[in-house]
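TEACHING EXERCISE
Course module: macromolecular assemblies
Task: Read the component lines below, then compare them to the predicted structure of the full complex.
Student: A.B.
Group: 4
Components provided:
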Amino acid sequence: MKIEYVNPFVEAAVTTFKSMCRVEPVRDGKLELREAGFINTYELIGVIGLTGGVKGAVLMTMDLNVGMKAVGAFLMDEIKEPNTDLMDGFGELLNIIAGAAAAKLEGLHVSLALPTVVIGQNQQMHAKQSNPWLLIPMKFPEWGKFNIEVSMEEV
Amino acid sequence: MKVLLIDDSSTMRKIQRRVLTEIDPAVDVIEAGNGKEGLDRLKENNYDFTFVLCDINMPEMNGMETLKAIRSIPESIKLPVIMCTSVAEKNQVMEAIKAGATNYLVKPFQPEDLKNKISAVLNK
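Instructor-supplied answer key:
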């Protein structure tokens, strides 16, 4: 996992939320490399597999109330409880972020799998020794924190 | 104006429908969740659409396969198709244009970007 992979994902997240949700997220603290073990997540998790010239995945996770605000802004409609719009919209936002980042990593010819979104409390993901994850803490100043997490190796 | 939206994201279809309604409050929007469904809707409607807005990254039948299928049918060979892509690598955009895309829209986009692409297609 190379450090130069970070900026395309950060820039893609900022551009996507600015364009599609009219809100500007910012970096919130230091990057964290998790080489093995369990990683805590927020309640709402979206993940997309990365294929083509790389193998790996990108994940976005945030609290449920933050996710409802973000997807509500995307849809220009209030989301009051978890529903199809929340799950679909969260996956689509991640899809757009991953796509925009992939475009910035042009030489790697990254292809995207379809997004998967899960919801639930006290979830953890697991990083394998050979498959480290880079955690990028971010926040919406108006709404709260979220993470973009990337695990990616060239093939 | 009659438009076929092909996108696996119901959220994206809602956003696109809203923009289309702003352009033409009387617009007739038909939706499909993947390319296969899109081809069915085309046939059911006798290929009678003003244009098609088609996502690329979809299950069942992706956008590139759908575009190629649309161009292989004599009734839709000249139907305007705007491809909507989140992976804007130059080679993928070129592939879409070569396969017969009329125009392409890169996500993330603002409503004005979509309106401009539609205007360009309508004024061709």
